[in-house]
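Can't paste images in this forum, so I'm doing it all in text. The chain is below; anyone willing to post the predicted structure tokens underneath?
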Amino acid sequence: MNNMHNSIFDKFYKESYAKALSFAKRLSKNSDQAEDITQEAFLRAYQAFDRCDRTQSPDNWLKCIIKNVFLDGKRRESRRIRTTPGTNFRDEDLLGQVPDETTSIEAILTRPYIDEELVKVFSNLDPSVQNLLTLAYDEELALADIGKILGVGSAAARSRLHRIRVQIKQAVVKQRVQLA
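Text version of the structure:
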């Protein structure tokens, strides 16, 4: 990057750092982890800054990077976490945590905790689908705002969100059947 790009990025960094850290804290619910996420996100942003579409909001672009850093960390963490020796989990214990066909996807996605099964389903989704869910449920944006970010109308955003809900519900139910 040349000096002009460095100065533009420095200004962007200074103006966006507090909001970025706050968003990372909301995602991770851990101050130390949020600082790591924010640092990694700004590093990725710096590396891709010359490819950034300056006609779009740089804050939304940065939020997407932060979300991706957070999700990458969760994926790595889920691959590392294994049942410790001496812990006896029974299938019945897991079945109580998996929703049945009558559970709404909103109830699943807005739980104060996240089931491991749901994390698996979420990690298998296309990144654009993950982004849409993050905008709707983590950031709680209105459909009109989601549509603007995605470059579609609010009706299209609502339709996509509905199809994703159905897809997730089917995947969670399928996992429940596999566990039974």
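The CA atoms of residues 134 and 140 lie 8 Å apart. The chain has two domains: 1-81, 89-180.
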